[in-house]
Design brief:
By secondary structure, the chain is mainly α. The protein has helices at 4-26, 32-54, 62-86. Helices cover 82% and strands 0% of the residues. Helix 1 runs antiparallel to helix 2 (32-54). It is found in: Cell membrane.
Length: 87
């Protein structure tokens, strides 16, 4: 199990990544498409940090991590299929 210092550093990283969304959308240096892609990338990083440290997937056997990754991929495919059927 990680110590309090690790959790504090992860929390600070999550706050910094959340601030990135504000930066992307409130400054004119980024177009809407760039801000959207940047926000998605930051969200993926945040999900990885949360799943790895706060949900303790980093300490689990690799098979459980692969199963979780497969589940996330299947949800992604289901979302794509649902979006396609709406059009």
């Amino acid at each position: 199990m990680a110590d309090i210092r690790t959790y504090t550093l992860i929390y600070i990283a999550l706050v910094a990544l959340a601030t990135g969304k504000f930066v992307f959308f409130h400054f004119d240096a980024f177009s809407y498409q760039m801000a959207l892609i940047g926000t998605i990338i930051l969200a993926i990083i945040k999900v990885g940090l949360i799943a790895g440290y706060f949900q303790h997937l980093k300490e689990e056997p690799r098979s459980i991590s692969y199963m979780m990754a497969t589940a996330v991929f299947m949800v992604f495919l289901l979302t794509i299929a649902a979006g396609y059927s709406i059009q």
